[in-house]
């Protein structure tokens, strides 16, 4: 059986230093590189940090790190529903759920190692996840499928449902199809936002248009994920493509669609006739827009519950392999786009 002394030899430090680091002794003064070396040695030797004798009686604690801004959570209830479903599932299992920002986590590496699991909501850079894995190897990524690391993944299959909607557009005779959405935002360990176009819905849109021989008709606008930005982007599209405005719009979220509706209707466009619109989320307002909004329903509640369930399986040593759970989404047909 691997013990403290084995870890100490591998990390080239004293057993006492290993014990104090793994016990998160705040009075110990050692460099971050030494701490990382100790945690790395423990992982390489399969030394079970979380099940140390002094730690067995404590309540299971899961850390939730969200990269979603408070304003975006207010604008898009999808994210608040994810978080609330995790809270409910943890309460049901009598787990503690502690919430942190990404910058908090990187400033408190001792705390990371004492968490039984870490769930990260939103997209962060792969190199940042690699650093977190040094301190805690039970990580579940929620809504961040493009990571190739030894972690569990839980996400909605946006690619499949996006191509389904676009296929219905084409089947209804539309070829001038544009996308309005938001930037993908990666967060680094300093909390800096790194905006890029590596967003799941946009990627699927580009792939589909290319596969259908419509690459020359690819047209999209990106901005912040909020209603006013939806209006701004639709206004720009109306100005730039006045002579050949798209007959179909795919919008990245229902909150963005609120702004898109305002822009189109102000310009005299009849939604559902002059231009069809489909969106994502199926939040409450979608049913009450005029015309009511065709949109993709995402089961945020089940995603959040699944993240906690996967964390528990790893904590209880029920499995060693990493799991990827891809949840389907359902297209809700309403008046803004009725397929043929």
From TrEMBL:
InterPro entries: HTH_LacI (IPR000843), LacI/GalR-like_sensor (IPR046335), Lambda_DNA-bd_dom_sf (IPR010982), Peripla_BP_I (IPR028082). The keyword Transcription applies. Coiled coil: none annotated. It comes from Enterococcus pallens ATCC BAA-351. One of its GO terms (molecular function) is transcription cis-regulatory region binding. Keywords: DNA-binding, Transcription, Transcription regulation. This is HTH lacI-type domain-containing protein. It comes from the Bacteria. The keyword Acetylation does not apply. Residues 2-47 form the HTH lacI-type domain. CDD domains: HTH_LacI (cd01392), PBP1_GalR (cd01544).
């Amino acid at each position: 059986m691997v013990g403290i002394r084995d870890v100490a030899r591998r990390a080239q430090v004293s057993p006492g230093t290993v014990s104090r680091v793994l016990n998160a002794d705040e009075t110990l003064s050692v460099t971050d590189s030494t701490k990382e070396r100790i945690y790395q040695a423990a992982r390489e030797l399969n030394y079970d940090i979380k099940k140390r004798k002094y730690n067995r009686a404590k309540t299971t604690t899961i850390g939730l790190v969200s990269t979603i801004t408070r304003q975006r959570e207010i604008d898009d209830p999808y994210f608040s529903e994810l978080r609330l479903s995790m809270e409910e599932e943890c309460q049901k299992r009598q787990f503690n759920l502690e919430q942190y920002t990404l910058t908090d986590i990187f400033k408190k590496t001792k705390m990371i190692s004492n968490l039984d699991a870490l769930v990260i909501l939103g997209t962060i850079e792969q190199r940042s996840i690699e650093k977190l894995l040094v301190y805690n190897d039970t990580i579940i990524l929620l809504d961040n499928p493009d990571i190739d690391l030894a972690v569990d993944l839980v996400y909605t299959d946006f690619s499949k449902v996006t191509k389904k909607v676009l296929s219905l557009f084409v089947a209804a005779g539309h070829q001038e199809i544009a996308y309005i959405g938001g930037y993908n935002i990666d967060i680094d360990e300093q909390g800096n936002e790194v905006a890029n176009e590596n967003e799941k819905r946009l990627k699927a849109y580009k792939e589909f248009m290319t596969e259908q021989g419509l690459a020359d008709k690819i047209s999209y606008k990106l901005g912040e994920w909020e209603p006013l930005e939806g209006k701004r982007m639709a206004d720009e599209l109306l100005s730039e493509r006045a002579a050949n405005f798209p007959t179909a719009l795919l919008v990245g979220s229902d909150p963005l669609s609120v702004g898109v509706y305002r822009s189109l209707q102000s310009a005299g466009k009849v939604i559902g006739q002059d231009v069809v619109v489909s969106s994502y989320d199926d939040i409450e307002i979608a049913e009450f827009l005029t015309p009511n909004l065709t949109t993709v329903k995402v089961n945020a509640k089940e995603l959040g519950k699944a993240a906690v369930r996967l964390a528990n399986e790893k904590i209880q040593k029920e499995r060693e392999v990493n799991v990827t759970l891809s949840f389907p989404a359902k297209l809700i047909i309403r008046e803004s786009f009725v397929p043929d």
